[in-house]
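It would be a great kindness if you could assist me with a short task in structural biology. A protein sequence and the structure tokens that stand for its backbone fold form the material at issue. I should value your view on which stretches of the chain appear to form regular backbone elements. The record follows directly beneath this note.
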Amino acid sequence: MTGKTVTILLVEDDIVDRMAVRRAFKTLKILNPVIEVGDGVEALERLRGENGQEKVPSPCLVLLDLNMPRMDGIEFLSVLRSDPALHRMIVFVMTTSQAEEDMLEAYDHNVAGYLVKQRIGQDFLASISMLEAFWRVVEFPH
């Protein structure tokens, strides 16, 4: 990578889960900027810089919940993957859904990984640390 800072777009409607991610970043001393949005509609506005929203800087990695109001994670992925400017975006799903069909549908939309919140519970810090290692070593599309 070019040494640019990776911005994290956290697409999560649950305040407690948002706080857990912030706490994990603080504990692990991860200083990457984190932009928080509550659903897929708001995430797309931020990624595109629409409706008065400041555009998310590149490179960007998306941490995506599936169960959200207005536009859920799968709907967001469908729109994202059909957008020529955003279709290569790196997305990790972080959700409570253990449903096989949700996981398969997420992978059908080319997510980089699927993390189930309950399973990572005590290993949450390890999961966030793994994500940090990922974004530090991979090349991001332009």
User: Anything to note?
Assistant: The longest strand covers residues 90-95. The chain has one domain: 7-137. The helical segments are 15-27, 40-48, 73-82, 100-108, 117-120, 124-137. The radius of gyration is 14 Å.
